Amino acid sequence: MSSNTKKPGYVCVPYQHDKFSIDVKEMWTSSRNIKSIYFVTATFSEECKPYFPFSTNHYLLAKFEDEEKLVRDAPKFTNTKPTFVFTVDNELFERDLDAEEKFISTYYLEYNDSDAISDVTKTIVKKDKIRQAGLAHLNLFCTDKPKFVFPHTQKIVIVEVSDARSPQSINQYCEKTRQDISRKGVVMNNFVSLSLLEKLK
């Protein structure tokens, strides 16, 4: 019964080559709630940088199955730099692709109405390199409170891309997708792009 209420998602913890990062990686490696772990580089959009001045370039990214279980362990992965937890509230679609996922792109919608969601879904489902897409909300975990509060935490779009090309080429592919959505009158802005460098679990 309760399995229906589980909410999956992604968690990004700053990777600092220190004991904290190693402990987080080991905790997640042994956790049944964590499906996979990646070492990633993150590129924040210019619009988002003022909200997250302490963000870094390298992160551990983990895909989790149950938000509740993950948040229970939040003190163990909370540090002075922000940790981002994207919880998927609504999976738009998922398809089987032969290639591994290589890139995760996140966006925020300025207006979260049903027409906008419909336009987003219709556009990205036509993109054959996108293996999965969902609507999510964002929670931040950080011991140092940010100076400015990011206002779009409830309207996040996440896409997973499987593509053998370079991160730059995939990023252009994602940007073209975003532009296609914008032409429909939907204001969808870049948040952070994650390039998956190495699979750790």
Strand line-up across the major sheet: 1-3-2-8-5-7-6-4
CATH architecture: 2-Layer Sandwich
Structural class: alpha+beta
Q: How much helix is in the residues?
A: 10-25%
Q: What would you call the shape?
A: globular
Element-by-element helix/strand order: EHEEHHEEHEEHE
Largest sheet: 8 strands, antiparallel, barrel
CATH class: Alpha Beta
- Number of strand segments: 8
How much is the average pLDDT?
93
Give unreliable regions as ranges: none
Spatial separation of the terminal alpha carbons: 29 Å
User: Can you count the helices?
Assistant: 5
The gyration radius over C-alpha positions equals 16 Å
How many domains make up the coordinates?
1
Proportion of residues in extended strands: 35-45%
CATH topology: Alpha-Beta Plaits
Short description, anyone?
By secondary structure, the chain is of the alpha+beta class. 24% of the residues lie in helices and 36% in strands. It starts with 8 loop residues before the first strand and ends with a strand.
